[in-house]
Write a structure and sequence with these properties.
six-stranded parallel beta sheet; 239 residues; alpha/beta; globular; homodimer; Rossmann fold; DNA polymerase, domain 1
């Protein structure tokens, strides 16, 4: 008979690791621009919006502003960005459509197949800085079969704060070494590792649109697993 | 293009509404008793364990003890119950097996089909006093296709505290009138209604093992919906 101690969990960074945020924002931007006749460079739009991601979370991390979820930070960043790009007079409905882009990001081609395999054997959950509603919509739109939704919002601390990872571990009723943090970003994994979690690096060399040749060395790295896709990861862990 | 405002949510009481807790505890108890040669009346065991549910949550509600999740309250109640029933010398492994009973409760026969239909059109999530890990295991064991897991643990308030319902509404990014609390228990629904949620009563006349003839009147009740099953409810809301 199974019990709590038999089960382990994989938790996942989402933006860049599970989904192709950049390609998805650009594609939705081009559709939006054609629909409303708004001319801008949508690649630059995507990169600049994402460029405001860390600075806006820093306002929360530094306690300049109280806890604010990512949807609200994305809105603040967008207002600033639209000014910078000289895009004026958008309606509230159009602003909402732009914000919804983040709820509708496309998984990498191996993501869904890999998650279904991992889910057969492990608990799988997002461990993202994105809020619960954002992750919920993304899962419905992208067929991501999460068992539950964890992440910064339940901890009220953005990654890489130790409490963000440890709250997820506690809610899972596990010890840190029973949980594998999975990400395409070394900083995220090293922060999780520092508080005792296991780690899996998944290479996403096209996250930023051009081939990233500065990935960790597959032969010499500090992680428990190093995978080229979620399907590869599932195979490595017997799922 | 969809946006946040288009989507509504159904949130669910779980013990009694989604799953048949009593029948499932009895069945698992009988298997456990045969395996370990422990003689007891498993119907009484189920009813007495459940009988300690509200009193133990009251200790948290009354601030006699700090926030304690339901798995931990179930353990405290079980230790007391085993004393009362003169069941002694169980191993920690056996205690864990008993506690896992609550993670492995069987859905009512209409539950899964109804949830899949509702999920096509709405966000669906448990709004239970059970903790996230308990709900996660139950979903995996019972094929419950939740979009996310909400409930008392994310609010750190047990139902029927207003903050339990309102925290779920806030995490969904919705207003209370966009969320339907669904339960087989009037008290739960009336508490949710009081803070502005919509309500759906689902009749579960066999929850306590004998036909309950004291259900609300189907023709004269204070709820937004009154259903005989989850499939009936899905039909009523066009899902």
């Amino acid at each position: 008979m199974p019990n709590n101690n038999d089960k382990q969990a994989f938790i996942f960074d989402v933006f860049g690791t599970v989904v192709n945020w950049r390609g998805s924002i650009i594609a939705q931007g081009e559709t939006f621009g054609a629909k409303y006749n708004i001319q801008t460079d949508w690649e630059a739009f995507a990169d600049k919006w994402r460029g405001k991601y860390q600075p806006f979370m820093d306002k929360v991390r530094n306690e300049e502003i109280p806890w604010t979820n990512l949807d609200a930070l994305h809105r603040m960043a967008l207002i600033e960005l639209l000014e910078e790009l000289d895009i004026h007079n958008l309606t509230e409905q159009q602003i909402e459509e732009l914000l919804y882009f983040w709820h509708n990001l496309k998984p990498w081609s191996d993501t869904v197949a890999g998650l279904y395999r991992l889910k057969n054997k492990y608990i799988i959950a997002p461990m993202s800085n994105g809020n619960i509603r954002l992750m919920t919509d993304m899962a419905k739109n992208g067929n991501l079969p999460w068992d539950c939704i964890l992440g910064a919002e339940v901890a009220k601390h953005y990654k890489p704060h130790p409490r963000s990872y440890l709250t997820a571990v506690e809610l899972l009723g596990l010890t840190p070494d029973q949980v594998v943090m999975t990400a395409a970003h070394e900083r995220d994994l090293l922060a999780a590792q520092k508080v005792g979690l296991k780690t899996a690096f998944v290479a996403r060399p096209m996250e930023f649109g051009t081939l990233n040749t500065n990935l960790p060395d597959p032969q010499n790295h500090p992680f428990d697993f190093y995978a080229t896709s979620f399907v590869d990861l599932a195979g490595q862990v017997g799922a």
